[in-house]
Amino acid sequence: MTGMLDRPMRSKLFVPGSRPDLFAKALASAADALSFDLEDAVQPDRKAEARRLVAELLRSPDGAASPKLMVVRVNGLATEHFEADLGAIVGPRLDLVNLPKVESPDDVRAAAAALDRVEAGRGLTAPVGLLVNIESPRGLRLAAAIAAADPRVAGLQLGFADLFEPLGIDRTDAAAVHHLQLAVRLAAGEAGVPAYDAAYAAVNDPDGFRREAEAARRLGYAGKSCIHPGQVPLANAVFRPTDAEIAHASRVVEAWRQAEASGVGAVLVDGTMIDPPFARRAQAIVAAARQLGLLPDG
Length: 298
Hints:
The protein has 2 domains: 11-238, TIM Barrel; 243-291, no CATH class. The protein has 13 helices and 10 strands. The chain has helices at residues 23-28, 47-58, 61-65, 82-89, 105-122, 137-141, 143-147, 161-164, 174-191, 206-218, 232-238, 243-262, 276-291; strands spanning 11-16, 33-37, 69-73, 96-99, 129-134, 153-158, 195-197, 223-226, 267-269, 272-274. The mean pLDDT is 95.
């Protein structure tokens, strides 16, 4: 695990682990990733049942055949369910453990050590990544250290409900939302991992979802959580390089290749002076376009 996923995760669709009737629909959706929830979406008396149902799906032919990233949001480290969750779900088909309510780098290291033990006991050689939730004041303050705590960290996931609601912060306050989005994106950037935007609870407000997603993309977010299938196409459309971006980035990459071959440190492309930071950004856009099949390889 290098801190970067090998596939895009523009959209991550939440699926309650206790709702097997939704599993097939989720697998058939356009979401890049499915996040089966064993935490907040499952009542305490159904935790064991949800754990079993999600584990069965991950080991099923349908789970094995799906090209989607498979994510499971487990119960928190401090709960009685954490170890049992890992014991049930860790296997070849699990891509990411979504770790909730992370408060410190030690939380990340403890989760990574627990994964080490389960993987070693099962002879697994491909490590499961950690998608780490930032959803508390302390977690926000330590977000950069949390993101850099272990190589398993594949990204930071912003969460507004647990962060805003206890403090009485208005979820519709655009300035507050923007502040947190920027803070978590910079923390993720310091550690060299992507950031993923929070869920948007108003499922009947597609315009609001799109506005928040577009604001996140302008800050460099890689994707957004979805709590309803109707939000998935919106996220996929927003977190996709536009045709104009791809065309410009392709020109920058080619011009930069020629400049490097000539020993030149900067080059003019489309009226803009390009130096290494701009070139790296263009290379990232081209790579993302290739991952999404929008450009041919090579």
